[in-house]
Amino acid sequence: MPTLSHVVKSVGLVTIIAAVGKVLGFGRESIIAAYFGASSTADIFFVASLIPTILFTALGSGLQAGVIPIYLEKKAENPRKADEFISVLGSFFMLVAVVMTIVCLFFTKPLVMMVAPGFSGSELALTEVLTRIMLPSLLFFTLAYMATGVLNANQRFLLPAFTSTAQNIVIIVATVLFAAPFGVKGLAWGFVFGAASQFIIQYPSLKKYQIRPIFSFRPYKQQINNTLITFYPIIIAALAIQLNSVVDRIIATSLETGSVSALNYANRLLWLPLSIVLTPLITVLYPSIVERAIEGYQSFLTLTLKGLKSLLFLAVPFMIVMLISGNSLIALAFQRGAFDASATETTYAAFFFYSACLPFFALRDYLMNAFYALKKTKVAMYSCLIAVLLNVLLSWGLSRFLGVGGIALASGISMFLQSLFLFSFLWLKTKKSDKAVFTDVFQESSKLIIIGAIIYGLALWIHPITLKFHIFVELVIVSLMVFGLYILFSMLFKVSSLQALRKIRSK
């Protein structure tokens, strides 16, 4: 089992790579914004990408999360047999992806009408064309997620971390080369080629583990059936998570023009700290949490709660910066070309509420992985289904009063309640004699709430002065001030996550 120092180093490397990928991601979004802005055409593209995105995330995310526990268990018994079975499983899901793609190609029109009820006839027609172009990406994404699961299970995190970089480079090149002559269709083809690049860069590493296509399913029929019983709650949970995005965009199509695009851009900006700092920690910890779950519940719980405290500790300063300087972040990232000040204002309405709920987006994903490690997949599934229902009701209601901001707020509230439900389940599952381990989590959370409130108040008071400077200088000043004060107060309040990092650094 990897040491804490090894985990921190892995997180550091993945964070650096993720940062490069995210910078390229913002380059991609900025170029798309420059060509299409927060316009009807941009709305059409983002809605068209929904169907393939929903499908590959439901299937691919389920595979990535489900493969690691199964693979590690079988590897402990017989590494060669583990590689062989994962090859069979990957081939099986590859066929599933092909069948799903063909079915969706036949039913593209009704699917598009379902996800974009507010579009006009011409908008629906173009959405249908773009969806057909992008649907084949499902196969490549499924293969890429399968490869990521295998490599992460073997503590190889670098190549999987490069997948977003590869995809962003391809989409950027495709947009620059094809957007002018082919319009938004060129961007759609870039989406497909980007999906293919995610698998291509990982494929050479799979050879080391003898992962290969095996289509002889009969000898493995019982094992596949058992795996599907384990997988279906994970896939339904992943599908439910994507339904949140569908609900958000469906409701946004009934609001003012550009609302779908604004929601997308705000969500992309939200995932900047999530992808660069928080997701790498979740990714690197997951295989270790699975190994601890195999050892025993108490060992699993100790590591899981340490990871939870680290996530909260890292999320708070990013949340404060985003709340204080959200308008400037949006303007710096997107405001150019067709993306004007009006688009920035619409996007900020969503981004503010997303930012306020940043920690819960990370906690939800982290706790879901913890339940997959415990093989409590049905609990995770039910939590996602409940969250979707809450999101539907809240999005519809709040959007009537807050517009696109209400949709973002509804997503944040549903994330908070889902995280609370999963955490409470762990609390109730733990024996009374072993619940002392939760005390540190409650103490740490209380400290971080107090520290966050103090720093937010100070930053909000000082922020008007920073607005006199250039937008980039303003962001640097606010970020340095927030992070500096955060470290200072964390030392004064003796926050355990900071102390743990200092001990590792001193080794």
UniProtKB/TrEMBL annotation:
Membrane topology (UniProt): Multi-pass membrane protein
Compartments, as annotated in UniProt: Cell membrane
Recorded GO MF terms: lipid-linked peptidoglycan transporter activity
Pfam families: MurJ (PF03023)
Chain coiled-coil ranges: none
General function of this protein: Involved in peptidoglycan biosynthesis. Transports lipid-linked peptidoglycan precursors from the inner to the outer leaflet of the cytoplasmic membrane.
HAMAP family, A to Z: MurJ_MviN (MF_02078)
This protein's name: Probable lipid II flippase MurJ
Source species taxonomy: Bacteria, Bacillati, Bacillota, Bacilli, Bacillales
